[in-house]
Amino acid sequence: MNKPAIQISTYTDQGKNWSASNAVDGIIYGDSSREGIHTANTGKDNQWWIVDMEKEYTISKIIVFAREGYGT
To answer: Residues 45, 8: contact at Cβ < 8 Å?
Structure first.
């Protein structure tokens, strides 16, 4: 939680903050009115998001949460 995060681009419509740091802010629920992460629609298939864990960890499980109404 609260580690440095970046993504290939950031969607900037609707006056909301869709930056990569939202993915590591600890908020794991929400609907489309809440701010999450969203890359800009660049037409690229290779969209990416990276978090810097700042040290080495053994990771046994990663869970990605989708906004409500947008799949899982």
So the answer is: no
